Amino acid sequence: MPFLPPAVTPGLDPELEPAPRSRWARFLRALSPRAIALTLISSLVVAVLMNPIFELPFMVLLGRTLFVGFITLVARSAALVWRQRVVPPWVLQSVTVFCAATLATLAVYLLATGGDISAVVTHWGRVQGFVLISGTGTIVGLMLALGALERQRDSEAKAMSLELALQRSRLERLAADARLAVLTAQVEPHFLFNTLANVQALVETGSPRAPAVLRSLIAYLKATMPRLDDGDAQLGREIALVRSYLELMHLRMPDRLRFTVDGDPALQGFPCPPMLLLTLVENAVRHGIDPSETGGGIVVTSRRDGGVVRLVVRDDGVGMGESAAPGTGLTNLRERLATFYGGAARLELTELAPHGLLAEILIDVPAADSQRRLQ
Amino acid sequence: MTGSVRALIVDDEPLLRTHLAHHLAQLWPELEIAGEARNGREAVDLVEQLRPDVVFLDVHMPGMNGVEAARLMGPDVQIVFVTAYEQYAVAAFEQGAIDYLVKPFDAERLGESLARLRRRVAERRRLEAGGPSRAASVSGEAEAGAAALGKLPTGELDAVLAVLAGELRRRAPAESRLQWIRASVGQMIKLIPVDEVIYFRSDEKYTLVVWVGGEALIRKSIRELLDGLEPETFIQIHRSTIVNLRFVAQVIKGPNETAEVHLKGRSETLSVSRNHVHWFRQY
Questions:
Q1: Which candidate, A1, A27, A112, B275, has a CA 20 to 30 Å from the CA of A172?
Q2: Which residues of B73-95 are buried (b: 16+ CB within 10 A; e: fewer)?
């Protein structure tokens, strides 16, 4: 597997370290009211349970369990503040709890004997008491510590998924904005007025081509007016629209644009969302032909290969750079494909040698369904 | 005037060149159309060759556009920009008091523009004739008030043109963000739209790009890719991995401040390293 990620070296990109929250805040968060209450209750329960075994007065025993309980709590809260990466958090917590409970119990017994360690070690009852209190403190402390760790992990996971949901809804809104932009700004003023200037020139010189050009312009404008329903969208109509557009462009740049539109008559009635092919053809003109002083040719074809309908726009212009803006249309084209055909359609772009671009829309057609539609 | 006034018509659309020439012949019959050019490069060459007094210059043209060409033509020629409606260009022309025509234009607007142009050319010729070398042939035809209409100070014109040239470049299709990833698939070079990319993962030499339609190797490094990708959508989760957030199904926190990214519609998972896990915490 050549693409296994390499092992992480800790501290590889120090500048990418997350900004640590304040240590004090992390410490206080671990010392939550909930943690304090749990420590209180568990110390009390342990004192009550151990009371029959000990000869001590209950209040003294309770004082000792409370002391051990709270020292352990403070110690493990402090351990949470320490951002280390050597051992997993649960190991650090366990070691801390064990040390804190043992040392706190030792402190309690040293206090009781006035600091005389031999009086603790040699007295059998005190050794038993020491082991009981420190052992219980360790076990209870561990349970509380690991419970707290688990809760923290849960809440962090929850926060993470919230972040993701937020991010995703933002992306979806962006997509909706893009869709709206398609509906509102179809016809570029620059295209429209340049074309009108050409029509004006034809009309003023009394050219016999004027009526045909006007027809093309009207067909183009009709087709590109914003609309919300794709009700009667058929490939035949789309092919006619593409032809109108290319005729207008050819009028404007007769020396630079050649084109062929070859629609399969059998596919006339094939369902096709409006402006699907037009988007590809406009893209070919904008990125392939228009930037070139010498221009080029565009070939539009539709045909059916077995179970696949192929809509092809091929140009031999300058091609698209890697950062060429796809225009309002192309970005949304795939979305429109997905909405209209479900998952059955895809767009593929291939660079042609020596230059040019091949744009293909491939639509899978179930055999039976296609028979019915294509008759 | 000494000699006829000579003009150059520059437009990539032949019909519009003919149309303008036709109108000029009617409105200013003495004007001689010295030549026509189809793009900025040809226009600059022809200006050098023919030394016209006036250039009607389309803004949007293939190769070198009109504004760039104007900057190369020098101060000795009167330029009238011709543009189809483009708000920012028209605004810049107005602001810079540069002569311009908006396509499609009518004869009246063209007539006004030509009247102004005539006065300017006449003034220019009078000033030139008044120079030391040709002091004897002062033309009496210059109008009394024409001095006020003398050519725009060169510095100001250059400044406006520089701004416009920048604006045109900015609006040109070239964008700084990566829109396509060029990848060899078999014998062909596919253009993969970046928003179909699920993730990039690199080893020392190549980067694997996994997108909705397949997988391919490219030569771009993670660092190069990061510079060109939309930072809102593509995030680095590991030294060698960039993921498209749109394809993230969920993130599972792992031990030791790492995490695993599960992807929509794919079985493999991507690991998030400790150095990058913070991305999922911020906000």
A1: B275
A2: beeebbbbbbbbbbeebeebbee
Please state which CATH class domain B6-171 belongs to.
Answer: alpha beta
Chain A residues with CB-CB distance to B195 below 8 A = 331
The closest CB to that of B14, out of A10, A163, A254, belongs to A254
Instruction: Evaluate whether B82 touches B104 at the Cβ level (below 8 Å).
Output: no
**H-type alpha helices, A51-188:** 58-81, 89-112, 117-121, 124-184
The pTM for the full model equals: 0.63
pLDDT tens per residue across span A6-52? 333 333 333 333 334 577 777 877 788 888 898 899 989 988 988 88
Cα angle, residue A74 at apex, residues A69 and A79 outer, rounded to 5°: 125
SS3 category, A363:
strand
User: If you average pLDDT over every residue of chain A, what do you get?
Assistant: 81
Ranges for all domains in chain B classified under CATH 2.40.50.1020? 180-280
Q: Which residues of chain A have pLDDT under 70?
A: 1-21, 83, 170-171, 173-186, 226-232, 320-331, 367-375
Task: Provide CATH 3.40.50.2300 ranges for chain B.
Answer: 6-171
Closest to B58 (Cα-Cα) out of B20, B23, B27, B96: B20
Q: pLDDT tens digit string along B124-170?
A: 888 877 754 444 444 444 433 333 444 556 677 778 788 788 777 76
Contact predicate A226/A186, CB 8 Å = yes
The side-by-side arrangement of strands in the sheet containing B241-244 is B214-218, B207-211, B197-202, B241-244, B234-238
Q: How far is CA A181 from the centre of its chain?
A: 22
Query: Where in chain A is CATH 3.30.565.10?
Result: 189-374
Q: Which of B102, B173, B274 sits opposite A8 (nearest CB)?
A: B274
Residues of A in contact with B13 (CB under 8 A): 194, 197-198, 252-253
The per-residue pLDDT for A221 is 87
Write the DSSP assignment of A245-311 as a string of letters. HHHHHHHH-TTTEEEEEEE-GGGTTSB--TTHHHHHHHHIIIIIITT-SS-EEEEEEEEEETTEEEE
Structural element, H or E, at residue A23: helix A23-30
A190/B contact by beta carbon, under 8 A: yes
Interface ipTM: 0.73
Cα–Cα distance for residue pair A368/B125, rounded to 1 Å? 80
Domain A189-374 falls under CATH 3.30.565.10: yes
Residues of A in Cβ contact (< 8 Å) with B203: 2-3
For B2, other C-beta atoms within 10 Å of its C-beta total: 11
Instruction: Give residue-wise pLDDT tens across range B206-255.
Output: 899 999 888 999 988 898 888 888 888 898 999 999 999 889 988 888 87
Length of chain B: 283
Q: By three-state DSSP, how is residue A240 classified? A: helix
Q: Which two tokens stand for residue A320?
A: 């698209």
Grouping H, G, I as helix, E, B as strand and the rest as coil, residue A154 is helix
**pLDDT at residue A162, as a whole number:** 77
Single out the residue of A144, A145, A117 nearest to residue A130, CA to CA: A117
- CATH number of the domain at B180-280, out of 2.40.50.1020, 1.10.630.10, 2.30.30.140, 3.30.750.24? 2.40.50.1020
**Smallest CA–CA distance from A13 into chain B, residue:** B275
Q: What pLDDT, on a 0 to 100 scale, did the predictor assign at position A326?
A: 53
